[in-house]
Write a structure and sequence with these properties.
Blueprint: H1 2-12, H2 16-32, H3 37-40, H4 63-76
Length: 77
Amino acid sequence: MSNYQEILHQAKTLILDEKKLLLKDLTTLVSQDNPPEDIQNTPAPPRLNLVRWRGFLPKRVDARKFQSKIRQEWDAD
């Protein structure tokens, strides 16, 4: 990890143009890396069937309004 800290310290001393160039080169380097074999052969997780929940789950819930509604129901009892 000391190598990482040294490199990070050196990167902080670069001028803006050099930082941009370093970022571009690091992005290229990372994108060229191949994932390990075990990750490539792992099947994708199953997709959730959200269609069956349509009508049950609202598209958006305002948390404050929901909380107020629940509290009103509790107070009514």
